[in-house]
Amino acid sequence: MHDVLVVGGGNAALCAALMAREAGASVLLLEASPREWRGGNSQHTRNLRCMHDAPQDVLQDAYPEEEFWQDLLKVTGGRTDEALARLVIRASATCRPWMRRHGVRFQPSLAGTLHLSRTNAFFMGGGKALVNAYYRSAERLGVDVRYDAPVDALELRDGRFVAARIGGERIEARSCVLACGGFESNREWLREAWGQDARGEWPADNFLIRGTRFNQGVLLKHMMAQGADTIGDPTQAHCVAIDARAPLYDGGIVTRVDAVSLGVMVNRDAVRFYDEGEDFWPKRYAIWGRLVALQPGQIGYCIIDSKAVGRFMPPVFPGVQAGSLPELARALQLDEHRFVQTLADYNGACRVGRFDHTVLDDCHTEGLVPPKTHWARPITTPPFYGYALRPGITFTYLGLKTDARARVHFGGAPSDNLFVAGEMMAGNVLGQGYTAGVGMSIGTAFGRIAGAQAARAALGEAKHAHA
């Protein structure tokens, strides 16, 4: 029997497994996916949001605790547990030396990565390289890993973990860490959460999944049925507007279109529906998936002209190109008259000052609803480009309620040997909204806490058993 069982195979699970092993516990990690798809959503990530009080290696200037907290408070609209959020923020300041010891390498942010060089540390080789580094380290330290091992049930006794089940197989351990993600790739659960719209359509049928197809939420649903305390709204998620041509699963970061703040967004009725220049893109990119999800047919269109080209990270698919706005409307199959009128209204409302995409500049609209607060320039320079966008769900926020020791709770009482980390508990910190890199901050902080606590619980029990 192993001391610690870790269910999951992404960043949080690996951090937990490594910490538990370093503490002297024997560890078994169960990953639902085959080896080649290991790593969950972490394989699609690029960076980690980090607090720091002075310049540090790849991070410029300073990003103090209070500023990180205010950024998080703003995007969540206050739907966050401040104590747990600050725990994550402080942990983000000290985790990188530990990550390096396990083979993770960092690099300066690339040109065009949304001016994140001050706030976010980028992984050399991206999330796939991070995941591979952790698996190599786990193997070297003697962590046992099994692939194609989807846990579908837990055996619990009075809130204590006893065993995990994979079908008919029963796996005992002295303690357990759950780090197997949300339910974003479970279409039926998404349909249930989002329901039907006024036209009798199911919005969730038009969602794409940016991340892994293996996050079906089976264990989350099982834990809810077992009476575990939950937190979060099932319709809230890290949801990004991505290219409508993206694959159903695992499109990852390259399917994102980062041109929204440089142009306008219209729905299928060719009408604008939100301020494209409200704030810096890293603080706002993750609201657009939900905004598009609330539009008719769950589709939106990002419209730019040639002035914007070269100012954003090029997406994987080229935009639809046209020599005139009426031609672009026809190519996108939008109402030509209304589209041209929407763009004319926008262009006429632009008050162009000194355009600067790196600051909250003074280019704005006047007398337009919704306004465009910054970076508003007339869309008049051909060729014109349009990108059809759909909601791309990265991970869902409904999860298990936890505390500063990463314990799973039942009726308000914490378990003494069952812990949770990563996307499965991110809703404690993220009630809504998102800011770039914070998912990895949460997974790293709580993965490490859960692993250390699980080892302590298991080794304490082993010691007691041998006494």
From TrEMBL:
Domain called FAD-dependent oxidoreductase 2 FAD-binding: residue spans: 3-430
Q: Which Pfam families match?
A: FAD_binding_2
- InterPro entries hit by this protein: CobZ, FAD-dep_OxRdtase_2_FAD-bd, FAD-oxidoreductase_2, FAD/NAD-bd_sf, Succ_DH/fumarate_Rdtase_cat_sf
Going by the entry's taxonomy, the superkingdom of the source organism is recorded as Bacteria
- Cofactor (UniProt): FAD
Is the keyword Nucleotidyltransferase in the record?
Answer: no
Q: Which Gene3D superfamilies match?
A: FAD/NAD(P)-binding domain (3.50.50.60), Succinate dehydrogenase/fumarate reductase flavoprotein, catalytic domain (3.90.700.10)
- Note whether Thylakoid occurs among the keywords: no
Q: Which keywords does this chain's UniProt record carry?
A: FAD, Flavoprotein, Oxidoreductase
This protein is called FAD-dependent tricarballylate dehydrogenase TcuA
Q: Which organism is it from?
A: Ramlibacter pallidus
Source lineage:
Bacteria, Pseudomonadati, Pseudomonadota, Betaproteobacteria, Burkholderiales
